[in-house]
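Hi everyone, sorry if this is the wrong subforum. Our group has a chain we'd like a structural model of before ordering constructs, and none of us has done structure prediction before. Sequence below.
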Amino acid sequence: MKPPPFEYVAPDSLEEAVSLAAQHGAHAKLLAGGQSLIPAMNFRVVQPAMLIDLNRISELRYVHQGDDGSLAIGAMTTQHELEIDALVPDRAPLLFEALPHIAHPQIRNRGTIGGSLVHADPAAEIPVIALACGARLKARSLEGERWIEIGDFFQGMFVTDLAEGEILTEVVLPPLAVGTGWSFMEASRRRGDYAMMGVAALVGLGEDGTCTSARLVYLNAGDGPVDATEAAGSLVGAKAGPAGRAVQHIGVDGVGPEMLERARERLRHLVRYGSLGVIRQAMILPAAEGELGLQEQIVPRHHAAFHRLPDAAADPGLVIMFALVRRIDAAKSLAEGERRQPGRCVLLPGGAV
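Answer:
Right subforum, don't worry. Here is the predicted structure as tokens:
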């Protein structure tokens, strides 16, 4: 199918784009990467009278480190640009770890961080990472600029807090505290497909290895990113290492029984093992950072086999192996074009700062 007729304009500056957005209001749509909007228009799910293309606005494409160690990202920065930027793995390792999971390289070449956030797809990775990291978002309109806390941004499936005429301009990820471990995983039927379930974890450890803070955020588990505060809170006080086996007893009720009541047993299985996997990765690696560093590990590729894990008595080593996420070295990805030996892939474990 093809979209119905529409007007098209490509402003060269943010001021011009803001003016056009205010002028056309609800009749206009903003075009970022277009990886979701254009298919929706082709199926006539969305029928804007005006399409405002933001791709010529170079001032919205950047990655900067703030004085406080935060990472400021322009809304039109593509996912591929984030993959190869040297600041991202250092200042936002959880984001860097999740990027290879987003669809395919062709999609990441066009898709933007701002477009993914504004689209607010419950199955998207970037909204989950932004919520887990406690991002702050800057929006611009004719009335000026305003900051939005990420917890207030998502209002439901494909709905955000952006007002009519507002344009998302910047995403700021705060620095991770020293001793924070991170991990991300998702399970999909095929690489590049929408995830059936995914989870991001941030775990802070004290000097004695005791968990002092935790964050668990799930994708495709509700009408938006699901912040499992109850499940994360049950981690506080637990210890990494051998004592960390206690995390096996974490229930999935913290994700929200209402979210799971109609889910198939397979999705319950994914939530259970996804939680266990990322928690183990995030809690174990801070204590072992000096020993493991960022050495590459070659492990069998089981991307789509995560849901075939055995029951809750599974060997912890097997669980950890399946929970390893693809933290692909950016330079190697660029040089090799993500070509991998058949049946195998280069993995780097989750880590700590």
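For your construct planning: The mean pLDDT is 78. The chain has three domains: 7-53, 59-173, 180-352.
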